[in-house]
Amino acid sequence: MASEHLNxxxxxxxxxxxxxxxxxxxDGVLIxxxxxxxxxxxxxxxxxxxxxxxxxxxTYVGVTLESMFQQVLDKHQLNHVLAEVLAxxxxxxxxxxxxxxxxxxxxxxxxxxxxxxxSGIKLAVASSSPxxxxxxxxxRTGLRPFFTVMVSGEEVAHGKPAPDIFLHAAELLQVDPxxxxxxxxxxxxxxxxxxxxxxxxxxxxxxxxxxxLSKADIIIHSYAELLELRDSLHIGVRx
Length: 239
Fold this sequence. Notes:
CATH class of the largest domain: Alpha Beta
EC number: 5.4.2.6
Keywords: Carbohydrate metabolism, Hydrolase, Isomerase, Magnesium, Metal-binding, Phosphoprotein
Catalytic activity: beta-D-glucose 1-phosphate = beta-D-glucose 6-phosphate
Cofactor: Mg(2+)
Pfam families: HAD_2 (PF13419)
Structural class: alpha/beta
Oligomer: single chain
Radius of gyration: 18 Å
């Protein structure tokens, strides 16, 4: 399937300012982990006594666990203590992910990241997941050596769709937001990237549900599509 908006002459992705950094969301962008999380979250919702329909569940893609469970508790009028809910869920997530045998990056992800790295582009991961989970998944997929910066949604004041996480990643990379490109798979993530003043590639991943990525500068369906565009990118690495 062809990428959307790629040949549009006004697409800001192919214009100035030059690209100096790529910031990746993790779940649904580097690895197809969202379906795994959905099942774990369904189990936690049931444990809480909340009946969360699929449509509602998909609206939480890209937000922090704290935000998701607070919204669930409020919407379903449950009296659980948020800290206890988070502790229960995080322990369950780590247990499942540590024992999961099929934590693999998307096809062509490593090839794309390797090309960016060889081109002198700075790389970061900015995920709503807890840092312990980010580190686990990057290690298990073999991608950890590529990333000099990792930011968890737990480390900023406001999670996606607020821009905090991407602005903090850019600050750590020492790159101005206008020189950054974000790859995201969720509506919340795309909104955060655009509000951070960054260009955004939407990764349309079926595992992340029916996400509205229309605010992204372009929409891709595989990393093979990005690899075909390498010569079109305006790379401007600072000396």
